[in-house]
Structure formats: structure tokens, C-alpha cells
Amino acid sequence: MKPVQTHPEATQALLAALGSEKVKTDEATCFAASFDNMRLSFMPEAVIRPGVEDDIGTVLKLANQYRVPVTVRGRGTGNTGASSPIHGGWVIHLDHWDKIEIDPVSAMATVQPGAITAKINELAAPHGLFFPPDPSSLKYCSIGGNIATNAGGLRAAKYGVVRDHVYALEGFLPTGEKVRWGAPLRKFVSGINLRDLWIGSEGTLGVITKAVIKLVNKPLARRTFLLACRTDEIALEAAAKLMGSRVNPAVFEFLDTQTVEAAEKRRGSRVFSTDELKGNNETHSILLVEIDGHPSVLADDAKKVRQWISEYAVAYRETDNEAEAEALWDIRRTCSQAMYSLGNAKLNEDIVVPFRSYVALIKYTREIRDRIGLATPTFGHAADGNFHVHIMYDRDNPEHCKKAEAAIHEVMKKVVELGGAITGEHGIGIAKSPFLRLQHSPAEIQAMLAVKKALDPNNILAPGQIFDPLNVWEHRPVKVTLAWDKH
Ligand SMILES: Cc1cc2nc3c(=O)[nH]c(=O)nc-3n(C[C@H](O)[C@H](O)[C@H](O)COP(=O)(O)OP(=O)(O)OC[C@H]3O[C@@H](n4cnc5c(N)ncnc54)[C@H](O)[C@@H]3O)c2cc1C
Description:
Elements: H1 8-18, E1 23-24, H2 27-32, E2 46-48, H3 53-66, E3 70-73, E4 90-93, E5 100-103, E6 108-111, H4 117-124, E7 129-130, H5 143-149, H6 156-159, E8 166-172, E9 178-182, H7 195-198, E10 207-214, E11 216-217, E12 221-229, H8 232-244, E13 251-255, H9 257-267, E14 285-293, H10 295-312, E15 315-319, H11 322-338, E16 345-352, H12 358-372, E17 378-381, E18 386-393, H13 398-417, H14 436-439, H15 442-455
Parallel strand pairs: 2-4, 3-4
Antiparallel strand pairs: 1-2, 5-6, 6-10, 7-11, 8-9, 8-10, 12-14, 12-15, 13-14, 13-17, 16-18, 17-18
Helix pairs in contact: 1-3, 8-10, 8-12, 9-11, 12-13
This protein binds flavin-adenine dinucleotide.
């Protein structure tokens, strides 16, 4: 599909200002910047790879002058269509701005937004440091995208999310002025904190060009436990019990029986042998627990975990050996792709519920499965209630699509009813825009829109994202293979 030039005069002015090396209008470049992991394509008119920071000011000033929508793109791994230019216009693509400087004394890193998250950890490791927020996409996503979505990861329960690890941001207001929020200091309380307003704002309030992030001492030791529980309910009751015991797991993952069944099928082997399961060959629910820290504290916590395991698990394994730990992680790493044996398309909702609602949530997902006949495998972070509820369906079957669409609305309503959140890490983008008003009152939405209007009076940055409910079912996903599909 050729890019349609709906702002030809503006794009000409842009080309004149920045040159054709930095501004591309060809079909291939525009197509590559038209979708993220949600795979709904909306073609931009031009893709800009800025050379120097001031280029961004120039782009935004021109966009305001000509009223051209602008979308910022990191590495396009987002799950919600937030970096898709749904109203066309220009995309600012920042994947080439990927410098990382580690300051081991301050335990800080100064990073450009396109830096790949895993690379930050690679460079921090020789100094005994790491950047704890670790989305599963960390080998592919950018720190700019992480900050703009306030990404979380497997270690969020103990170490927190991206917001807990940002000291300072630099960048441009939607109107094109350069700003700095915070400073490379451990303490900074001057003025109203707009740094935190940018974090998680999904590219709607500014363009991040630099960040100073907090690094943390790498734990000296870790111990991994993998256990099977007879049912999902037992596993979830166990999860709440462990959290109440004051053990502070760095990783605590839950895989329901539907997920385990699909993952074992993909691996071609059971996680626990019949002997380990004492002859009970039914599919079990699985919990993966990792504790880390100083070896002396770890020994004490490990005792508590073993005691807890003896109350709830049918079978378990544990290790403090890196290679063996990797083997215990295999089932968790397999589950995302394994689901495609249950349907060729998936809705992946990263909802959050409080501990008291864990069991009610899992029962509800099974109730939906039984009622509509589509698989609802669920896995996720048992320490903070951030579960990935999936609905697997056949994208080419209109009946399936109708059922999946209705079911996801029901799940979202239920989550809010249970005291939860419609998203815990992916953000709203376009994917969850139809549900925003289930979570927030009209007054809350008005307040958010007032902030947006104050910073972006011409609605230039990511217009339509978050607030305008978009019927995603009217759009067919593009058939592409992305780098992370293989993992
Ligand atoms: C296999 C897989 C696993 C995943 N696992 C997780 C997970 O465990 N936890 C999690 O939180 N997410 C996860 N995600 C989602 C995704 O990786 C994160 O949302 C990530 O933070 C997006 O980074 P990105 O560089 O790809 O951003 P993009 O997708 O390019 O953009 C995401 C948003 O950030 C904005 N943005 C990007 N750069 C800037 C900038 N410089 N200035 C302003 N706004 C900007 C965009 O406009 C958009 O709104 C996963 C995705 C995949 C494909």
C-alpha cells in the first residue's frame, strides 16, 4: 500500500528542512513503521530518523504549523498499537539513537531512547550492576519505549517497574521546545514533577531524547524453584500465602493448566515425570519462584519456600546452578508461542487483580472458555497480580471473532469489578481504548485530556491514541514475521 500524501506541502517543507537522508517517504520504510506487535497497519506519509536533537524541534514546529500528526517509534514491540500512526502523518523513528554510558559510582546510566534494554544490562554487568525492569521483550525493545509505556517485567514484584528507575528525562514538548525533567541526582524535588507525567504517557505528551536511569547492585546469588500444584485454585491460593509470608521473590510466575498443557505439547515432553508426580498424570498448574540476594539471607528464605512448597506442591525441583535454572525456566519461556496450538490468533490482555481476586479471576476465565468454546490460557506475575489472560481464536472465522470480541469486553468488566486494572504493563494505545472508560470516571478522563491539551494544544502527538475508542475488529492484522516470533 503506497503512502498517501495528505499533507504534501508540509512534507515538502520537512524535506527542505532536514533533507532526504533523514526523511523517507518510500513505501517500504513507511510500511515498516506502520505497525507494532499488534500488527494493525496504518501508513504514515514520512518516516524521520533525526540526525541531531534540534531536528526533533524542527519536525514538531513544522507539524504544529501544518497540523500534521506525529507518532514516535522506538522498536515497535508494543502490544497495543501505540506506535502506529493511526491518523497517518509523520513517524519519528529513534532506533538509531542507542548510546549507553554507565556511571558505576552513581549507579546510573545515561541512555539514548533507541538503546535496546538488554544491552544496558550487558554493559552494566561488569560493574556489578543491572537495570531491573526486564520485559520479556528486552532483547528487542528500546528504553525509550519502556519509559513511554512504564514497562514492567518478571522482576517487578521485588524491584519495581520502569517508573521506579528513572532519575531524569530530556526531550521535546509536542510544540517543539526542548525540556529537561529531573536531573542525574538521587534527590530532586524542584517544581511540579512532569518527568513522571511523561513516564507511561505512550508518546502523547513529549518526545524523549535522553534518560538517566537507576541501576541496582546485581544480587550475589539466586535460587530457582519450579513446582506443580494439582489445580489452578491451589496454585493461586499458594501464591497469596507465599507473599504473606514475607518472602520477597524476585520472580514469581503462575501458569494455569491450559497454558501448561499447550507448552508441554510444544516442548514434546512433560515438565515433571510421572514418578515425580507420584503417578498422577493429569496436567498440573505450575509456579516458578526465584529468590535472590545475599547468600545468608537466601538460605533463610529458601527454608521458608521449601516449607511452603511442602504444603501446596505435588512435585518440585530447585537449583542455584545457572544452567539448571535455565532448564527450569524453559516452560515459562515456551508458553507465549505455545498458545498458537489453541488458535491462530490471540488476544493478550495484561490485566491486574488484587490477591483476594486471584481465584475468582481464574474461575471466570474458565467459565468463559466453557461458555464460548475458545481457549483462555492464562499466565503471569503471581507476585503483583498482573496476569496475561488470553483468548485464542481463529482470525478467519467470523463467528470466533465475534465471540472473542464479546468475551474480552466481559473480561475487562469483570477485572474492574474485581478491583483490578485493565492494563498493568502494556498500556492503552488503540488496543485497550474501548475499555478506558470502564476504568476511569468522566472526571478522570477530562483531567487527562486537559493535561494533553495544555501540553499539546494542536493535538499533534499520537492523536487518537488512548482516548478515542477504536474498533480494532474492523482492521485485519498484517501477515509478517517479526524478530521475536521465533522465541
Ligand atoms: C514478545 C514480547 C514480550 C513482551 N513482554 C513485555 C513485558 O514483559 N512487559 C512489558 O511491559 N511489555 C512487554 N512487551 C511490550 C513491549 O515490548 C513494551 O511495551 C516495550 O516497552 C515497547 O518498547 P518499544 O521500543 O518496542 O516501543 P514502541 O512499541 O516502538 O513504542 C511504544 C510506545 O512508546 C512510545 N515511544 C517510544 N519511544 C519513545 C520516545 N523516545 N519518546 C516518546 N515516546 C516514545 C511510542 O510512541 C509508543 O506509544 C512485550 C512485547 C513482546 C513483543
